[in-house]
Structures are given as C-alpha cells and as structure tokens.
Amino acid sequence: MATAYRPRRSMLYMPGSKPRALEKARGLAADALILDLEDAVPPAEKNAARGMVADTLAEGGYGARELIVRINGLDTEWGAADLAMAAKAGPDAILIPKVESAAMVRDAAEMLDKAGASADIAIWAMMETPLGILNALEIAQSHPRMAGMVMGTNDLVKELQATHAPGRAPVSTSLSLCLLAARTSGLSCIDGVYNAFKDDDGLRAECADGRSRGFDGKTLIHPAQLAIANECFGPTTEALAEAHEQLAAFQAVEAAGQAVAVVNGRIVENLHVETAKRLIAESEAIERLAADAS
After folding, report:
1. Measured between alpha carbons, how far is 219 from 226 in angstroms, rounded to an integer?
2. What is the average pLDDT score of the chain?
3. S-S: 181 plus which of 68, 140, 187, 286, CB 3.0-4.6 Å?
4. How far is CA 247 from the centre of its chain?
5. How far apart are CA 70 and CA 156, in angstroms?
C-alpha cells in the first residue's frame, strides 16, 4: 500500500480504555496515534475499551494525524471483535501484535474484507518475536494492505532472553532485518519504545541511533517524549538548506547537458538528488501537518 510521504516521526501509544487520554491526544504534537486495545488495556476492560475507541474514531477531531488501532491478537478472545470494530470505524490502519508469518497478515486482510472495510485501511505488523523477525520479508510482502512495521523491542528482548543494553546490541540484527524487509517492500518502519520516559538524554541518543539506522520514526509511551522524537526524526535546518542547494545545482548542470554537480566541494549525482527530494518532501509534509493541527 504505497502512499505519498506522510510524517511518522512520532507514534504515540494511547490506552484505549482512558477517555481523558484519548481526548488529550487531540491536541498533542504526534504525527500518529496508536489507540491501543492490547497491552495498555487489562482483560476486564477490553470490551469497554473497544467501544470507547469506536466512539473516539466516530467523533474525530484529530486533524491529519494518522490513527492506528492496535488490536488484540486474532488468537485471543478479543481480536476478531477488535478487527470487526476497526473495519466499521475506519482508522487509517490496524496494528497486529506479534506477527510471525505472511498467513497472519492475509488472515487479517480477509477478515477486513469480509467485514466490509474500506480498501484504504492499512495493516501494520508488530515485529516482536524471533520467528517474526526471521520471516520479516515474507510478512512485508504478504498483502497489498501492508503499510509498515513497528518494532516491539521490549517483547523481543524478553523472547530472546536478552537484556536491554546501551547501543541495543542484543536486538541490532533484528532491527536491521526488519529495515531491510521494509525498504525492499516500500514500507515504513518504526523504531521501538524507550522505556525511561523521564530520561531525555537517553531518549535523544536512542532516537539518533534509530534515525542513523534508517527508521522513519519512533513509537513513544508518553507525551513528554514527543518533542525529542519529532526533532530527531525531522530534517534539520542545515540538512534542508543543503538539500535545496544540491537540487538547484543539479538542475542547473542537467540543463547544461551534464550529469554531475559540485556543492560545497562535494560531488552531487542522481542518488544525492533523490535523497534531497525526499528530505524536502518530508519537510513539506511536516509543515502541512503542523498547519492542520494549529
């Protein structure tokens, strides 16, 4: 489900059972909101939360923010009802937990179709088990509704029987495999959460690490993390200025029948131009989103 670029610097989990949190989310500077029916909701509240999320989606008021519903697993007693609700309520996407195979995605897509879901409702996959990581490419290419992958690093660390470590060495291979699968398939890929929501320096370092690896953005557990994620995953003023300069220089030499420009002592070729265009498109999309929210 390839689409025009949209900002996904910050994807904030919001508990589907907390009406005040869902209301507050309408004014938060998040690029995307994950209305969570899974981990954030205790079993006794899951049915009520499903109705609350349906009412929230019907009411709207979130502007251009991307709205994603994380359902419970389809192998649980709540998953099918969650998916049926989402099919009718019409979020931008559903997020399926613990995806381990292409068949799991195709089953969800078939259920959406049978429930009469719009073709615009995308599917995102939580990548949080060893088997899911090993099957990342087949999952990424499983169905036209597939739009992205979200790293579930907490569950992944647990399943690997590893520990959280500086530099994220225990999950580094998993992060790379999912990025490779996503980029091969034209999907977005979002980094996992940073648990210490009061540790700004640690969050900034992990966001910088995620950006350098190639992630589109980061999932977040607290609104206080939004500003740092948006800053780290957005284009800097310097990078954007250079992108415009590279594009202008290349267009000038191209008009003269040449194929290579020089900007600030560095060669600029087609590959640099593609990167510059993507950066400019990111900036313009972020500006549109900010204008819509204001």
Report:
1. 10
2. 94
3. 140
4. 28
5. 17
Per domain, the residue ranges of the chain are: 10-233, 237-293
Q: How far apart are CA 256 and CA 267, in angstroms?
A: 16
Structure tokens at 136: 């990342």
Within a 13 Å sphere around the CA of 197, how many CA atoms are in the beta-carbon half?
13
- Please tell us whether the domain made up of 10-233 is placed in CATH 3.40.630.10: no
* One-letter-per-residue 3-state SS of the chain: CCCCCCCCCEEEEEECCCHHHHHHHHHCCCCEEEEECCCCCCHHHHHHHHHHHHHHHHHCCCCCCEEEEECCCCCCCCHHHHHHHHHHHCCCEEEECCCCCHHHHHHHHHHHHHCCCCCCCEEEEEECCHHHHHCHHHHHCCCCCEEEEEECHHHHHHHHCCCCCHHHHHHHHHHHHHHHHHHHHCCEEEECCCCCCCCHHHHHHHHHHHHHHCCCEEEECCHHHHHHHHHHHCCCHHHHHHHHHHHHHHHHHHHCCCCCEEECCEEECHHHHHHHHHHHHHHHHHHHHHHHHC
Q: What percent of the chain has pLDDT over 70?
A: 98
d(CA 65, CA 44): 29
